[in-house]
Write a structure and sequence with these properties.
434 Repressor (Amino-terminal Domain), 94 residues
Amino acid sequence: MNVGYIIKKYREKVFPGQGGLTECAEKLGISKQALSRWESGGRTPKRSNIKELARVFGIDFDDFQKEIAKAEDAGIKAGTSLTRYPLERSMLRP
């Protein structure tokens, strides 16, 4: 599953800057190491964690699932250049 690519993309958009990883992990109630493993593709978060990620990112869970599926269909892997596949603006809440 290419969840890591999507997680990193949204995390960098919602929590920019050097402290973004730490801030996001704190909001999720997990360690920054766990979040980093999800982003790198080393581990896959449970469905309940994916729901929590969507909540923290301020996006609809179903839309988040669709974005993950879209990345999988495109064959996007963890570590792929994030600038090459921009976020869909319609998915981010104002």
